[in-house]
Amino acid sequence: MIGSFSLIQKETGRPLRFYEASLFQFINPKAWSIAITVASGFFPTEENILIGVAFVTLTGAIINLPTCSLWALFGSGLRKFIKNEKVKKIIEYLLAILLVLTGLFILIK
After folding, report:
1. How much of the chain, in percent, has pLDDT values that exceed 70?
2. What digits encode the pLDDT tens for the residues 33-45?
3. Of the candidates 41, 37, 20, which has an alpha carbon nearest to the alpha carbon of residue 29?
């Protein structure tokens, strides 16, 4: 310690609260790109705007809730295997290869 200052700073960060995370979505560029894509691709054109918004919202909730839950469960289960550094590296390379292959598949189609 030098004087009253510590050489090692403690992290005082905390996770976002629910309302903070919700408000963050208004400046989240990924959320805006998803919203614009969904509105342009799936919004019913010949429908009342309130019914169209309700349709898109309900469809998104029905699809996103189970898929995000499955993704979170998979991540939690995968954490048990990642304690070993060698296994962690293998999984990281495997997931990177799958990501690149997915990108190439999308470009080819």
Report:
1. 90
2. 888 888 888 888 7
3. 37
